[in-house]
Amino acid sequence: MFRQLFNSIWIVALAVDLGLGAGAAPAAEPGTGFRLGNGMRITSVTPSAPASRPVPGLRIAADTPSMPQPPVAGFSPLVAITTSDRRSSDDFNWEHTLVSSYVGRPLNPPAEQNFVVGVLDTGSTVDLAAGASAGILGLQGRYLTPSVTPIGGIAGTMDAMVTMPIGVFAAGLEAVTPEGRLDLSKVIGHTNVSALAAPPIECADGTGVSAVVGTPLLAFYTTIIHVDRPRKAIVRDKTFISPDVQITTSYDPSPAEYRRRIPMELGGLSPVTTANYFAFPDFEDILGEWLPLTPTLLSMSAMSLPTGGAFFAEVGVLQGPPGPLNALQTTRMLVDTGAQSSVISSNIAAKLNLPLEPDFTAEVCGVGGSTVVPGYYVDYVRINAMGGALEFARVPFVVIDMESPEGGSLDGILGMNFFWNRNLVLEPTTSGTGFLHLSEPVPFAYIDLNRDDVVDLLDYAVFAAAWRTTPADPAWNPRCDLFMDEVIDTRDLEAFMDSWLHMVGNAPIDAKL
Length: 513
Known about the structure:
53% of the residues are buried. The strands form 4 sheets. A 10-stranded mixed β-sheet has the order 4-10-9-3-5-12-6-11-8-7. Strands 20-21-26-22-25-24 form a 6-stranded mixed beta barrel. It is mainly beta. 9% of the residues lie in helices and 33% in strands. Strand 1 and strand 2 form a beta hairpin. The protein has 7 helices and 28 strands. It has a domain at 457-512. The chain starts with a helix and ends in an 11-residue tail after the last helix. It is globular.
């Protein structure tokens, strides 16, 4: 019974260390991967042949050239993650405890050195580490239980080990010192948490899952993400660049700075008040301690069977000219900070009357392998918000069917490509309505094409050498294809110039911090 129940645990947008997407410099080792939900990532995008299908009448995108057109992939908020042995001394206390500082003893000392860089992920219902990262965090040996939870991907599932109760802590990359050590005075987290330790999850290009901090922590904090304030950290000879991330207990966004508020609703299988794991006695030692059967998930009460949850927003989508027979379709999409790109289901694609021939195809890698899925540019997307609706034209979506944490199928995922040029404040709540606060457009994230820590004429020379090229040209440089549409054109130039002109004094990124 329990295995059947936890087969439905929905774990999305698992972390990948490399490749930060459009408008941001990738990690030191080049990668083209963009994160999606359900542990998947896009590894390549191929446009379909031009004029593959007739389009009757005028499309919304053609009528509204002033609307922003999101890139295929947006930013990825990275955080430093570490662990401790802090847990409750009561075997019958399964509830997590929120803490504002590092407490307990490191599972793999020293914690200042043995931490990993992972993703701040509202699409993940658990905290998780995979492969080598699980070992670095000390999630091995006596800190593992016999319990397993299947995690699913595009082409299969694998079993992840449920850990003993531990402490999980996170901080933005600003907490990583120039020497590559973690300043423990800057982390926050929760203790008495049962996380997941997964086997290595890697794609053919060598990139793989690292670690994620999910909704069991993020649902109880406010997160501030500054896209225009990039941070850089070098950890174990790998370079990571991310928007500045701050996790705080309270924050009141200024209406003058954050002029839009998108309502978010917590969805799940039951009302949520806390997060906890569920335990059973060790049948080999009936008088011994009770072992976690499940990871810590959002739950109704401290002793209830946890069911998880995620945050949703209503998103209107339309293909073709509006009319009595072609109305705006309202979808319920998961708000996923861990997904760089956005997704719709085949059901929504059908309701939009999308053709069988896609605008592009995407190779998607996940647990169990990889597959090719269709992608479309949807003419018009509207997200209602206090302060005025956000409207977009020609929005890229890939089509993948996923299970929803609310049960049934998921309409789609609202990825960070919608907010590639805005600062945001994630203000969730476990009761009532939470909000995603958005600033007005800000300069593009850091674009350092030759990776010398400064945006200057040398980067412009790199871009100019690739101007107007496609993958078929000898001068093609995928780093300059900021929108990943396999042509380097005026959209890429505008993005690059925005980054160049708005760098503070064209100084190295460390000088801005």
